[in-house]
Design brief:
The protein is mainly α and 449 residues long. It is built from 18 helices and 4 strands. A hairpin with a 2-residue loop joins strand 2 (257-260) and strand 3 (263-266). Helix 10 (193-203) crosses helix 18 (409-448), helix 13 (282-300) crosses helix 14 and helix 13 crosses helix 15. It is globular, with a radius of gyration of 26 Å.
């Protein structure tokens, strides 16, 4: 095993640009991925029919602090421009989360999950149906909201049933197309297609935001020292995220020896890796959505500041201590909640016992499950505090120090996680290409011998 590991390490170290140049299949996959993302970015500039862009921009600038701003961030500005991809891929993400939650509470869906590839395909089909339904409902809500927005100045040129129907069809079709495009990237490109679509939308807005920061430095609004310190802090936060996302607890799993005839088999040791952040970026997205919903509703009716929505708009604004405190509490809660859904210690312990594996010092079955739950609970606590720190830091910088360049913790987590995953897949493709080359050389030598 050690010899195999050292050989793999040597092979990984030998990967360079020349190896990349010879990997034709990988280059084709990268070009396909790039082309698909370009198509997506072009679609974010095709406007919905029947919309006055100037009035729309005025309305959106007033409501950008709520949940609309977060959705606009994930759509790469498509919602603010009200284009055919205004809903982006968010209905698909919501449908995926709902199906995962239902899998944990529905015996029928849980049975499908255990059926392997066939069950996975059925669950994916349910997710697609849910995406269409959610997209249609959200599109209708956007159409009605556009007709009633702006008071006397509606951004809709000709409101009515026809406008609502065309908006529903256009926005739902845009989301379904992006869902299909993401699946094509996953199958024929490199990386997870849905994640890359979100990633490209967030990254597309970075140059403009960075340019505005440098412009403030040029005009003297902020000092050069501040800009340098801010950029150093941004690099440090990215490095911290990379370190924490790669962190894992490796639990030793031993397999017993068994005798078949005159030979002994088994006896190997492997590791069960438990990530520090099992839940990924789901908790910050859920927490932000819940906190920003009241502020969004309040912004649609700015005249009423006396009711409960007015209270929400005052105390749940970005940077307030109530908002930050609730944000941390919700992130920690959703970390534990989502981790409990995606990782079942009892099921993992049963699988280990089924294949003869055991954790040294713990009896198979309930004792092993309790130990895994003990370890996972402590890992999740540290992971939730890490997520809360990364997401709250931008809020504090904006509210307390008036940092003009805002790049939220959720978007930063997505960008770093997707980059790491894509680089790892590119590396695995290069390794596979190197292995194929070695196998071909070995076969040629065998024929010559």
């Amino acid at each position: 095993m050690a010899a195999m590991a050292s050989a793999a390490e040597q092979l990984a170290a030998s990967i360079n640009f020349s190896a990349f140049a010879k990997a034709t299949e990988l280059k084709n996959r990268l070009w396909f991925t790039l082309g698909a993302l370009v198509i997506y970015r072009l679609g974010t500039y095709i406007p919905l029919p029947g919309i006055d862009p100037q009035i729309l921009q005025e309305i959106f600038s007033r409501n950008a602090g709520g949940i609309l701003g977060m959705v606009d961030m994930f759509s790469g500005g498509a919602l603010g421009r009200m284009t055919i991809f205004a809903l982006a891929i968010m209905p698909y993400i919501s449908a995926s989360i709902i199906v995962q939650l239902l899998t944990a509470v529905s015996p029928q869906l849980e049975a499908l999950k255990k059926e392997g590839e066939v069950g996975r395909k059925k669950l994916n089909q349910y997710t697609r149906y849910g995406t269409v339904l959610l997209a249609a409902v959200q599109a209708y809500g956007i159409a009605v909201g556009l007709e009633g927005a702006g008071g006397g100045r509606s951004p809709v040129i000709d409101p009515g049933l026809f406008f609502r129907f065309t908006t529903m069809v256009t926005l739902t079709g845009g989301t379904v197309f992006l869902m299909w495009l993401g699946e094509q990237i996953t199958a024929r490109g490199v990386g997870n297609g849905i994640s890359l679509i979100i990633f490209s939308g967030i990254v597309a807005r970075m140059p403009a935001a960075l340019g505005s920061l440098l412009e403030l430095g040029r005009t003297g609004a902020v000092s050069t020292v501040f800009i340098i310190l801010f950029l150093v802090l941004a690099v440090a936060v990215v490095a911290f995220i990379v370190f924490m996302e790669r962190a894992q607890r490796r639990i030793l799993v031993q397999y017993p020896k068994r005798q078949v005839g005159n030979k002994m088999f088994g006896g190997e040791a492997s590791h069960l890796p438990l990530k520090l952040n099992t839940s990924g970026v789901i908790p910050p997205i859920f927490a932000s959505s819940l906190l920003l919903l009241p502020a969004t509703f309040a912004s649609f009716n700015p005249g009423d500041q006396t009711g409960i929505l007015g209270w929400f708009s005052i105390y749940l604004r970005h940077g307030s201590w109530v908002y930050i405190l609730l944000y941390v509490v919700l992130i920690v809660f959703f970390c534990f909640f989502y981790t409990a859904i995606v990782f079942n210690p009892t099921e993992t312990a049963d699988n280990l016992r089924k294949y003869g594996g055991f954790i040294p010092g713990y009896r198979p079955g309930k004792t092993t499950a309790d130990y895994l739950d003990y370890v996972l609970t402590r890992l999740t606590l540290v992971g939730s505090l890490y997520l809360a720190a990364v997401c709250v830091l931008p809020e504090i910088l904006v509210s307390q120090y008036s940092v003009p360049f805002y790049f939220g913790g959720t978007s930063l987590l997505i960008v770093v996680s997707v980059t790491m995953d894509t680089v790892a897949q590119i590396h695995s493709h290069l390794l596979a290409h190197q292995y194929e080359g070695l196998i071909k050389k070995a076969k040629l030598r065998g024929r010559r011998g």
